[in-house]
Structures are given as C-alpha cells and as structure tokens.
# Entry
Amino acid sequence: MQYTFSPEELTKIEGIKARYPEGKAALMPVLWMAQAKWGWLSDDVMRCVAETLSLPLAHVKGVATFYTMYFKKPMGKYHVQVCTNVSCMLRGGDTLFENVKAKYGIGHNECSADGRLSLEEVECMGACGGAPMIAINEDYHENVNFTEVERLIESLP
# Structure
C-alpha cells in the first residue's frame, strides 16, 4: 500500500507548519493526522510523515514511540483508556481497569479479535477531580463505575 497525503491534507499540513517558527514543530499534529487517517503509525506511515515534513525518519520514530497517544500497532475502532494514576486508583480506577479487562477479554494495549475494542491502562489524563475516569476515543467520562462503563461500551455502534 502506498501512503500519501491528499492535496487537501498537504494544504492543511502547510497551514500547521505556518503556525510554528520551524516546520519540525508540526510533527506531533501531523502524526495525529496520519493516525486518524490510517488508524495507527506503521513504519511506512512514519516514513510518509518524515518525507512530507523533510525530517529524518529516526526523529519521527523517536517522537512517535515516546508518546503513548500514538498507536504503533492496530488498535480497536473504539479505544478505551482507563486511568489508574493516584486519584483514579484511590477511587477505584485500578479495579475498573481489571473489570473491563476481564469482561472483554483483552489486556493492556490489546485489541479484541473483531477489532471493535482496544484497551489501555493510562497514567494521568488530567481529570483528578472527576476520578475515576475513562476515555473512549476522544470522549472523556468522569466519575464512572463499572456498570456505567459497560453501558457506554455496549452503546457504541
């Protein structure tokens, strides 16, 4: 498969680059665009990003592998993140993660066989006052319990 950005996407990338004093600073938003387009950041996708931004592939891989928000393998259509950091853990986040793991039969950074769900145990997502919290794709849900999480997951199309 050939990985290329469309002319419209290239125009958007140029707009992103224009916001920064150096084009290199556009890397994170362009990686995010690439992940949204192709679902995850394979070596070929990272190579496309590197070529598009005229950056060394090693630099692109270094950034992509440092940040957990970038998927380095295929993940589910719905990516469930459960926070287990201090505030969430004190309010049951670790138990919530274990219950989701058991109910759906997938572990940390694993994907269900049908590709519908993936699960990730994450550190602080910045919602300590609403602990415990989860995110499903880009939707945040605070003060949740396992019953509510089950309902949220089951309601996904």
